[in-house]
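Standup notes
- HV: blocked on the assembly model, inputs below
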Amino acid sequence: MIESDPHLISGLKITRMKASRYTISTLKETPADAEIASHQLLIRGGFIRKLASGIYNWMPIGLKVLQKIERIIREEMNASGAQEVLMPVVQPAELWEESGRWGKYDDGLLLKFTDRHNRNFCLGPTHEEIITEIARNELRSHKQLPVNYYQIQTKFRDETRPRFGVLRAREFMMKDAYSFHSSQQSLQETYDLMHETYSRILSRMQLDFRPVLADTGSIGGSASMEFHVLADSGEDIIAFSSDSDYAANIEMAEAVGPEPEATTPEATEDISTPGIKTIAELAAFLKIDPARTVKTLIVKGSETPLVAIVLRGDHEMNKIKAEKLPEVAETLIMASEEEIRNVIGAGTGSLGPQGLNIPLLVDRAAAALTNFVAGANRDDFHTLNVNWERDCGDFRVVDVRNVEEGDPSPDGKGTLRLKRGIEVGHIFQLGYRYSEAMNATVLDENGKAITMLMGCYGMGVSRLVGAIIEQNHDEKGIIWPAPIAPFHCIIIPVNGHKSAAVAETAEHIYKALGAAGIEVLLDDRDGVRPGAKFADAELIGIPHRIVVGDRGLDKGVVEYVNRRSGESAEISTHQIAQYLIDLVKSDSDK
RNA sequence: CGGGGUGUAGCUCAGCCUGGUAGAGCACUGUCUUCGGGAGGCAGGGGUCGUGAGUUCAAAUCUCGCCAUCCCGACCA
């Protein structure tokens, strides 16, 4: 039976907890299937446990962290005027058929099933359809607009490859908000407000983040920004200017074309290049810079079977940009060797832009070259001194490459730098994408039905737990930012079982801190030696630690240690409670 | 989905190649000593070796199927 403690709980906030009565399931060894720091530390610290691939249990201490994040998000969303709702995880197929996404939504990600009456349902990967259903039923007049509804709910996406623990789980916690408007200006205002709100939320979590221009992806819509937490383990690459606040996902970052070269065209010359297939081999063979060459990629077209895309030899194709080109098939597919040979008469490795009879799309940087080297469209031959106007027929200049470190910034200010980021938020202006398909209208001033404009604003709550750890850990474990920490303070009595003075002092400080509303964990576990307690405290990342031992009590002091700085101080037993109260208060004032 | 790896105690793994009594460390239970940086002794509990078939006198070990899981490539909060 658990000892009754009337002071244990104050409202919903657990201010006092004894480690002997709390599930602290720390592991000394790193689990074999965890690759990155946040995943390893969440498992080792006993915050989460895997139930199945990409599906996790949140243990008591992990849930506390999750709820701290939720609380910050709720406070800021409420402050922005948004209203919290809760929509079902299980969603009927009919609404998805109405929006046209039942058969389209990245087939596979959507987990479908049927009930006993053989009706189709799915587990919600997102809630545009449901919120639009709510809006069209409940909103009648333009006077009710704008509104912004949000929820914090479990989502399920049947990712082909769950990875990195909570950073890419199949089941995860997300805050999603949806706004409705009668004018573009109103949508823009809410969009801007959400931009500010997201910045405020991430700042309160003390994260180093960047809002960046983003692709809208499969959700659709126009304007879109992602919020990235900077971390080397991030899956996205973002480009940002050295001299301005321009920042964009590399998927979107515009590659500015260089000035065309002014060199006079020289006579072309075919040379034998036996066995040379790659740009690196070609550049080494000719002893030239890869930037003097071009590479020709053949992909499936939308109107024609094949399309040629030409890039400078040292550049990489950007898949997202390529798919947006009208000549290119909506899903980028590279042509097979056989298809290429049938149309061009040469294989990959010997292709060039000269004399092709398929649409020719040339990246800006490649188009600026003169007297460059390209494949000769004849196996094992390349051509020197190729020039666009003279040698290549009709072509269109496009932006289809990834930007690189040092490229000029598209806004003309400074140069681009690249960093990795974890996408924790994404805001969109959806426009009419769903409201039109699902006929969500209100009456305007003239009594005429108008389709509402929509915005949508997502934030990965459980992903944030991982992202925060990626930015806040050391070799010993997690270092929670104060507003996220599961407990503010941990008290470790040394030899409390032997020394009544130690046990009593620890208990006294514990009660004093709890009474002051500080979330405090007393590590009173029997038979766990001090070293193990110190290691656990550091692993689970409690910001403030108090060590009570005979060594200090003889002098009337206890030891205070700061998790982040490692700094320690001896504080008198009479002053320690107030000392901590002041520290925690200054944490929350930040 | 394509390619590769791995499934043996709660966790980390050995054993498999070369078939013959199922192991270690950590964790757990009891006990004694210990107790300011993941202690040590003694005693103990815990495994249908992922699963199904096949080969064999005999399968954790060899063969095949299936399942799970992880990693590398195309998607997303």
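- HV (later): unblocked. The longest strand of chain A covers residues 416-431. The CA atoms of residues 157 and 170 of chain A lie 5 Å apart.
- Next: hand off to the docking folks.
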